[in-house]
Amino acid sequence: MNMHTKVELYKNAIESEDPTVEYDPKGKLVASVTVNITNLSAARAYRDYGQVAYNRKIMRTVTPLPIFDYCLIDGVKYLPLERQQVGLRNSIMLKEAGVQ
After folding, report:
1. What is the pLDDT of residue 64?
2. CATH of the domain at 19
3. Which superkingdom heads the taxonomic lineage of this protein's source (predicted)?
């Protein structure tokens, strides 16, 4: 597995009524990892999931990842849709944020 893509994993920021708590709209950086990223083709999305889907990616890693709400890949925001873990291998389907 060719792991060459740097990905930043984030938790969503929670607004607080406390004025002493600093609010960062970007969220809290959970981890910065190097993983394998591949595009999910429309044909495979239709075959495996029954719908044509564009702008989807599959993120694979051999180590467990922390829980995250979204990630940044080359400055583009992606949301996790489906997670699968078999042994130590993790596979997460990602959808580009703001795209149907």
Report:
1. 84
2. 2.40.10.270
3. Bacteria
